[in-house]
Amino acid sequence: HTHFLSLSLQAKMSRPVQARRLEGIDKNIWVEFVKLATTYSRVNLGQGFPDFPPPDFLKEAFVRALSGENHMVHQYTRAFGHPPLVKILAQFFGKLLGRDIDPLTNVMVTVGAYQALFCCFQAFVDEGDEVIIIEPFFDCYEAMVKMAGGKPVYVPLRPKAPEGGKLMSSADWLLDPAELASKFSKKTKVIVLNSPNNPLGKVFSQGDLELIAGLCVQHDVLCISDEVYEWLVYDGKEHVRIASLRGMWDRTVTIGSAGKTFSATGWKVGWTVGPNHLLQHVRTVHQNSVYHCATAAQDAVAQGFQREFELHGKPDSYFVQLPKEMQQKRDWLVQSLDAVGMKPVIPEGTYFLVADISEFKSDVPDVPDSHEPYDSRFAKWMVKNKGLAAIPLSTFYCEAHKSKYNHFIRFCFAKEEATLKAANDILQKWKQEKTNP
Ligand code: PMP
After folding, report:
1. 141 plus 244 within the same structural domain
2. Is 228 in the pocket of ligand 1 (CB under 6 A)?
3. Ligand 1 within 6 A of 350 CB?
4. pTM for the full model?
5. Same domain for 351 and 331
6. Three-state secondary structure call for residue 182
């Protein structure tokens, strides 16, 4: 008995188990905020997913795929993408980008855009390479760059107060051309672009993209272009694809997501589009990590894209209808927030907006020496005390910049009218309590 005990003591591991590549990226705010939202929220406008169903034609396509005669949809399909899906994606993006796209070499399917991002960083970023990230940014970019051994270099969008007391727009958050140019060096390997941008909803203008493209060409830098919100653009604005600009096809991998495109984030179907000399390396990462993606979901997404290809630009197209509905939802939330003094920054795209919480500081007093940014404590207080979940904007900044951008929270408005009304009720009641304590 004693012998066994001493053996098991010896057997206890004493060496460090964590791989070096995980240093500094082991904390993730989503785990914490998703848990808080499930525990406390009555209305969850935190994490980005619709609470309305995907379109019927898409659900029916999934059912058809599963119940049809082709039982091979239950088996592995082509590792780099189910043939019908890469075929229609090639046709669709060929039309959008105005070039011939080969389904077998210029398109690769992934487990959501998230895996596409991971494959790209692993494929292109070496130890010590610098990767330029525009702030605020979808937070996983930072961790993925670090995991690949790269060094993130941050350049913040600079907010400019609008004239005449108007509400701010995401278009008022600007890239400073000189500042951006100063971040490019011999060490720069990649710039990450995310337009329309999560969390601000900024849709980068043709001018912004030409500036970025010019610097990429000048410094021989790659572009990972995360365009998962490509269909969610409002007020007649146009989404410009950076891969369509001069000199950029050869150095850009464009990433998309059926989750965002068809309001079905749980399906986790994403893709990359780009030149073969880049995608061949993305395929190498994919084949040595995930290799196959769920066949039936790809089949249904292929059918969805086939429908959209035929209806492209027509009023019945989901890609025309969805942004119309979402713009209405945006406007409802903008009104609700504006009415209580939580000033929204009107987004030009995506299904997010950020709102200024400065006028609510008396409800959640600052703690001067806290390591936690103010907006983070505010968001936690809000979900616990008001039942309304949102995400602090500082989440989307690097450590050094968090304290500068700590008075906004991000809301997701991809929600049923009833959900947005319930959020409005919470805000109204809160406002009343503030005015008549
Ligand atoms: N990029 C951005 C900017 C996102 O907001 C998201 C989802 N929140 C993703 C990528 C990941 O997309 P998917 O769900 O298809 O993996």
Report:
1. yes
2. yes
3. no
4. 0.96
5. yes
6. helix
